[in-house]
Design goal:
Structural class: alpha/beta
Number of strands: 16
Bound molecules: ligand C2E, magnesium ion
Strand order of the largest sheet: 8-9-11-12-13-14-15-16
Number of helices: 23
Shape: elongated
Helix content: 55-70%
Amino acid sequence: MKIDVQLCGLAINLVLLYFIIKHESVGLFSEKVFKLCIAVYTSCVVLDILSIVVIAYDTKYPDMVVMAVCKLYLCLIVTTGFCGFFYTYSDILHLRENDMMKKGLLGFLAFGCFCIIALPVKYHHEGSTIYTYGAGVIATYIFAAIFIVCTIICTYKYAKHMSLHRRRAIRAWMYIEIVAAVIQFFNPEQLIVGFASSLGLFILYSELENPEVYHDRLAGCFSRDTFSMYIKQVYADIRKFSSIIVCNSDEWKMEEEQARRILVSMAEFLGSFGEAKLFRLDANDFVLIYDKKEQEMNEIESAVNLDIIRQRFSKGWGTDEPVITKFLYIPNNSTVSSQEEYIALYQRYRDSFEADEISKTLDETAGERIREFNQMKQEIKNALKEERIEVFYQPIYSIETEKFVSAEALARMRGKDGKLVMPGKFIPVAEETGLISAIGERVFEMTCKCIKERNLVEMGVHYVEVNLSVAQCENPELSAIYDEIMKKIDLKPEYINLEITESSTLSQRSILLDNMNKLMNIGCSFSLDDFGTGESNLNYIVDMPVKIVKFDRSMIQDYFSNDRAKVVMKATVGMIKELGLKIVAEGVETEEQVEGIKALGIDYIQGFYFSKPLSTNDFVKFIETKNAS
Ligand code: C2E
Ligand code: MG
Ligand code: MG
């Protein structure tokens, strides 16, 4: 009796079983199916061995027992084929959710087993050579082959649902089984199918199902990738969970070694919360997921744990510079409806804490905001693609010449319904998503074309002011891009004045200055926009090579309603004038305000009193009429 090959297969399966049981599982569908595969494959090898034993000692056992063991073994071979297919299609959501498909597959497996049981199976026993043959064995080959071929087809047909790595590993597993089956079919005494299956399973384990691949190397908890797979599955299965996101400040002022030690300590502490699953997110963040069946229990448990966690984190981690940690608490994940929205929720609120705020609860309102945000993001992308970004121009009046000597270019988005969307609605979303650069370039190009094609300069408009966003200022390529646009349109850079704003989020002031210098060298000029709002101060004017300062509407309103503001305004105007800069007053709405501004010594006025922002045609008509008189 020769069972060495089978024993090797069994040994492989038992080792895999040990490692799989030893590791904590995150509960992904593919993990569960892989466990089922190991169970079936192990039973198959055990029955392979048993069938050889009962055939070798057939005189000791009744015929029925020998046949039952042999047929059960053959049925398990078909079941291993089924498992391969089941594992593969577990990656493909719409197949996994298809009930008919599941029932059909199980029915086909049952039919295969029925054929094996009903058809005759014979065995050959001569010395140490033992094998089975007959119609039942041929049926086994046919059904197993169908499953294997279907699995391979699946990896090609649904290639987009699986990574290349996954497809390759599954195909390798199947090809090994095919080669072994062909060898055994033509040499029935070579019983290698069981061993080949174990080998295939081992490949799958080492390539795809090794529990280590789900873990974060440093922290030891589940990794960021596992988190993505996990929540994708949870949303697909419409399950509920509560979560606590631990947001650690981005930069830790300490040695790398110490930072690593703290991360490990945090992971150990957070990992000690019973059944909650711990994942490491980007950088130093963690998320704890409570996903018991009863959502109420999840909410209670997570709320209690949040208090304990906050207490522990408030004690610090033994460093001189404290690690600043904030907490996002999401009692119920159905606040948002997909994995993408959950990630967007986390990314959006992660950096939105007030200085003294330690934790924030994200509920329905936060979810609603995320949905609106995502809709607007999509709408901006479509508008850019479908060229629905327009430019309106607001005339700027010169007190000295009593003419409209410039204008500000202001972006508008034309909705699909033809209505205009104002910047207040889409600019903040564009800024947060980085789409502002594309909008800025589009507005700039359209403005350049307008100046050139409509001969604005001849009509007395010396230059047009175009807004620059912080993100654009931080782009080292900005000056080159704008220079190229002006060259393409053949527009003199003197006709362009770019508006910058002071912003605490500007992290690369050197890049902004570099861009400004390059653009000024070719002839552009700069204004400082939004002066007088929270973010601006006089120092900025000293540092930045701007020619014009634009007083924000709020500052103008204050001037006319508040006596103390009047004093400050007068002094500010004096200082700015002494620096040799020009001033634009924005948001001037009444005649009384116009007179007041004139008396102050301000140079230009921009406001609804003269005109609201106008479409290109209306603006050209406006200038033609007003500047002619
Ligand atoms: P801003 O650059 O300070 O532009 C002036 C805003 O004040 C314009 O609003 C204008 O319509 C409004 N305004 C002017 N005079 C009056 C007035 O008398 N009364 C009132 N109530 N408002 C007045 P708008 O067009 O809604 O733009 C808002 C902001 O959106 C702009 O403020 C600017 O920060 C941003 N923005 C607009 N277009 C662009 C663009 O192309 N790129 C960038 N980065 N930002 C833009
Ligand atoms: Mg502006
Ligand atoms: Mg402004």
